Amino acid sequence: NAGVTQTPKFQVLKTGQSMTLQCAQDMNHEYMSWYRQDPGMGLRLIHYSVGAGITDQGEVPNGYNVSRSTTEDFPLRLLSAAPSQTSVYFCASRNSPADPGNEQYFGPGTRLTVT
Amino acid sequence: GESVGLHLPTLSVQEGDNSIINCAYSNSASDYFIWYKQESGKGPQFIIDIRSNMDKRQGQRVTVLLNKTVKHLSLQIAATQPGDSAVYFCAEKRRSSTLTFGKGTMLLVSP
Asked: Which residues of chain A are modeled with pLDDT < 50?
C-alpha cells in the first residue's frame, strides 16, 4: 500500500489564482480529512468526510471546498488564493469515522505559498 | 475557552534520559486522546492513544498518563534516543469523529 499520497509537494500561487490539492489513499478508509499547519498553531481541521458523497466543515473551512466522489480521493480546492492561505496542508485518513481508535494516517504534506 | 495546549514549547534532553511531554486540556467532554510525532518535513505519525476511562497506557518505550481531575495528559519516553527528536502533538476527540490538536512541543535529544 502507498498509504496516503498528496500532490503536489510544493506550490506557489499568486493571489486570486485557484488550484486543487490532491489527496488519495489506497487503504479503503472511510474517513478522510484536511488540515493546515501554521507555525505555532498546530494542526487545524479544514474539512472532513466520513464516506463517499459526504463532507463536512471543520474548524477553518472558509476559502476551501472539498468533494468526495470516490472512497479513494479527497481533493481540496482553493477557489481564489489569498496570502493567509500560505501554509502546509496535510491530508489524513482512517478506517472508521466513529471510532478514532483506528490509527489515523497522514500524507507527506503540500507546502503552499501565496504571494 | 476550550483548548488543547502544551506546557513547554521546547524540551532538551540527553540521550538515554527519560522525557516527559505535557499537555493540558479543558474540555471535560473529550473522551479520547492521541499523541503524534512529527519529524521535520513529514506528516504526523501516530504514537499512542488513550481513552478517558483509562489512567495509563503503555507502548514500546512510551507511556501515556491521563489525569482527568486536573485535565492533564503526559507522554513519557524511556531511554530517549536521537531518533526521538521531533515535534510532539497531543490531540483530543471533541465531536463524534474530529480531532483537535495542540500546538506541539519540540523534543531535542543530544548525544
From this structure: none
Does the beta-carbon distance from B96 to A90 stay under 8 Å?
A: no
What are the two backbone dihedrals, phi and then psi, of residue A50, each rounded to the nearest 5 degrees?
-95, 0
- The reported pLDDT for the residue numbered A40 is 72
Only one residue has cell 471546498, namely: A65
- Give A102-106 contacts, CB < 8 A, sequence gap 24+: A103/B46, A104/A31, A104/B34, A104/B46, A104/B99, A105/A3, A105/A4, A105/A25, A105/A27, A105/A29, A105/B46, A106/A4, A106/B43, A106/B44, A106/B45
pLDDT of residue A97: 63
Contact criterion met (CB < 8 Å) for A35 and B101: yes
pLDDT for position A102: 64
Residue B98 CA to residue A63 CA, distance in Å, equals 20
